[in-house]
Design a protein that fits this description.
The chain has six helices and six strands. By secondary structure, it is α+β, with helices and mostly antiparallel strands.
Length: 186
């Protein structure tokens, strides 16, 4: 049975052979990958068994590609809800429970109603129950203190946290580039 080209994304590595991002994992659709190959912007590291053809050309679809030019990542990541969750490893900073993104909120340590600002150093990940329980009170009033006080992470810290959350589909050719810290098999 032939595999659909739509199910053949390529893992995109920077010129240093590290993924551009871990969460979301840096993947390109097959069309963008083929275009980058033809424009000589990437090196093919690994390929699928799936072949694409035109009247005058045939190639195996790349499963892993590496950029020829290194892309510097931003040192200061954007303050987004998702990045806060990633910094806190999708864990409620009050009860310690791990949750999926849809079950998380973020909580202001100093509530906005009390002059608290929406910024890295005043926001933590919280589950809905803990957020409602804490309400518009400061930790000393609610008795709820975050397990880890909020801080502004670097892009590197977010990437390291993201490495622990791979997508459901991992092609075998990607594994060598995603699990550097894994213990090698004997």
């Amino acid at each position: 049975m032939s595999v659909s080209v739509e199910s053949c994304p390529a893992l995109v590595l920077n010129a240093d052979f590290r993924p551009l991002s871990y969460f979301p994992l840096s993947l390109w659709c097959w069309q963008d990958t083929v275009k980058a190959v033809f424009l000589d912007r990437v090196n093919i590291v690994s390929e699928y068994d799936r072949v694409v053809r035109s009247p005058s050309f045939e190639m195996r679809l790349p499963s892993v590609i590496a950029l020829k030019d290194y892309i510097h990542t931003a040192r200061r990541p954007a303050f987004t809800r998702f990045n806060v969750f990633l910094r806190d490893r999708f864990t409620c900073q009050y009860c310690g429970g791990k949750y999926v993104t849809n079950d998380l909120t973020f909580d202001h340590i100093v509530p906005r109603s009390r002059g608290g600002r929406t910024m890295w150093t005043n926001v933590v990940t919280a589950c809905g129950t803990c957020n409602l329980t804490k309400g518009s009170r400061i930790p000393s009033e609610s008795g709820m203190y975050p397990r880890h006080y909020p801080f502004q992470p670097s892009s590197f810290e977010l990437q390291e946290n993201g490495r622990g959350y791979p997508p459901n589909y991992l092609h075998e050719s990607w594994r060598d580039f995603l699990y550097w810290d894994s213990e090698l098999e004997n």
